Amino acid sequence: MKKMCEKGIGLGRRQLLLGALPALVLGAQGAQAQEELTGMARIRAAGALKVAVYNAFAPFSYRTGKGMEGLDVDLAKALAQQMGLQMTLLPFDADEDMNDDLRNMVWKGHYLGYGPADVMLHVPVDKYFQQNNKQAVIFAPYLREQVVLARDTRRLPKVGKAEDLKGVPLAAERGTGAASALIGHENHMLSSQVQIYEDGIKAMQAVLDGKAAAAYITRAQAETAIFQANPKPEHIEITDFPLQGVPRDGWPVGMAIKSGNDELGKELVQALTALRSNGQLLALFKQHGLTLVTP
Q: Is the N or the C terminus of the chain less surrounded, counting Cβ atoms within 10 Å?
């Protein structure tokens, strides 16, 4: 009797395993199919475009009480909508350099498990930078960043050369090439006058508050502070002011995706082209008080 029971139990286990086998095989096949979805097929299956943007990077992407805001955030939404997708935002803190940012957010993912995104915004479109990051494709410029001199015309009616800035307080953003160029110009001629601020918008605010006569920052930072000011200042002028080490014409800014995702890249270019053609891209810039400079 005991042997019969043992035999029956053994048979039951065998039947159970055989019955479970088809389900296990189907489950494995389903998982494999999911893994095989890559690039645009995977994104379409998920129904959302994952977009990486910088934290604390006003006016392009920054956190407020309402969540993430800024030009890049709105552009991410518009791109996804144009592609018929939802948008999932992946905000991240900048690493030590942009090579690390591309690795973490574009082609590999952070070692803590965050990322990668499908696309990262606000990436300099530069051939040397691209050559050093072959795991990513950098493309589709949508704006041009440029360092400018934003000055109070009551204190500096006219500026044609660096010598014209002598004797007045100047503002710049900590850790930027613009700040280094201003401080180091002509054997540190202006260094004692330069006040360093946490970001370019605060540097521009110092000019608006009368604490500085001019700020050497990006056009977007200057325009943002002016746009937010109330009442609107009429004594501020923004001009090109290239110093040694600062690109005269600025630099184009675009997006980056993982190498090999050609279909995704094609759809992003098409979406950006459509936004530019229908005026939506220009409207986004105006909404944030920014000038759309052709990349």
A: N
Distance, C-alpha 132 to centroid of its chain = 19
13-30 as b/e: b if 16+ CB within 10 A: eeeeeeeeeeeeeeeeee
Distance CA 21, CA 14 (A): 11
In CATH terms, the fold of domain 41-145+251-287 is D-Maltodextrin-Binding Protein; domain 2 (3.40.190)
Report the 10 Å Cβ neighbour count for 110.
Answer: 14
pLDDT digits (tens, 9 = 90+) for 40-81: 999 999 999 999 999 999 999 999 999 999 999 999 999 999
Question: Could you identify the residue written with the tokens 């508050």?
Answer: 209
Give per-residue pLDDT as tens, 134-156: 999 999 999 999 999 999 999 99
Task: Spell out the SS3 assignment of 48-96.
Answer: EEEEEEECCECCCEEEECCEEECHHHHHHHHHHHHCCCEEEEEEECCCC
Burial code (b: 16+ CB inside 10 Å, e: under 16) for 157-192 equals eebeebeebeeebbbbbeebebbebbbebeeeebee
Q: How far apart (Å, rounded) are the C-alpha atoms in residues 29 and 20? A: 14
The second-level CATH assignment, the architecture, of 147-240 is 3-Layer(aba) Sandwich (3.40)
Q: How far is Cα 166 from Cα 182, in angstroms, rounded to an integer?
A: 12
| Residue 31 CA from chain centroid, whole number | 33
Asked whether residue 263 carries a pLDDT value surpassing 70, the answer given is: yes
- Supply φ then ψ for residue 38, to 5 degrees: -130, 165
